[in-house]
Amino acid sequence: MERHVLAVFPHPDDETFGCGGTLALYTQAGVPVTYVCGTLGQMGRNMGKPFFATRESLPHVREAELDKACNALGVQRVIKLGLRDKTIEFEDPEEVIGKLLEILQEVRPSLLITHYPGYAVHPDHNALGDLTIRAVARIPESERPKVYVQGFAQGSEEVLGDPEIINDISPVAELKLAAIQAHGSQSQVMFTRNAAGKLLRQGVSEEMSNQFLKYERFWIYRFV
Prior knowledge:
This protein has 224 residues and is an alpha/beta fold. It has a single domain (5-220), classed as Rossmann fold (3-Layer(aba) Sandwich). The protein is 40% helix and 18% strand. The protein has eight helices and nine strands. The strands form two sheets. A seven-stranded mixed sheet has the order 3-2-1-4-5-9-6, with helices on both faces. A hairpin with a 5-residue loop joins strand 7 and strand 8.
């Protein structure tokens, strides 16, 4: 049982697609969960299918989707850092680390979940994951939360080995599905439905798509 779980990701939908089931498992068990969202995804290319957002309205649409998705997952608090989408790697690192340290010191999580720097594909994923870990490293070792990291770059497991944490999220699959659907501007493009009405991820096999609502995998980050 964790005291408090803190998730730190750069975009609305990262909390859902990456670890929505895990967050829902914690909230269902009565563990408070806080989500730190770096940006509003204002530079995203997906705007619904058919389009229902524009470049100007997209940040407002995605912010509303984020709030709805977190409500579905039971996430009690969302902190929005207000960084600009697709530019986190160019932010002043000390300023971002300082903001994250303030949150860490206030929330005092026993577990933090973020992206694995260098193994998370998107530059924002890698950048905010790195800054988050650098913030945690400034906390005295005896007071640091455990850190679970997600990596999904091709070849990650060949370098890092098998993920150490594999959560069976099937008991809360419907909650994750509701959160996915809440992120409509993204999920309408990224998912399709088969003849039976089942939601499937675009570009992957049905078996891999099924795994998406059954398991979530993490590595434990070890500070050296």
